[in-house]
Amino acid sequence: MSTSAPVAGLVPSTAPITAPVPVLYVSHGAPLFAVDAGETGPALTRWGQYLRAQFPALRGVVVMSPHWMARTPQVMTGPHPATWHDFGGFPPALYQLQYPAPGAPALAQEVLTMLQAAGLAAQGDAQRPFDHGAWVPLMHLFPEADLSVVQVALPMGAGPAEVFAMGAALRGLRSQGVLVMGSGSMTHNLAEFFGGAREPAPYVLEFSRWIESALQRGDLNALLNYRSLAPHAERAHPTEDHFLPLFFALGAAGDDLHANYLSREVVYSMLAMDAFALQPAA
Question: Which of 23, 152, 177, 262 is most open to solvent, judged by the fewest CB atoms within 10 Å of its CB?
Answer without folding.
Answer: 177
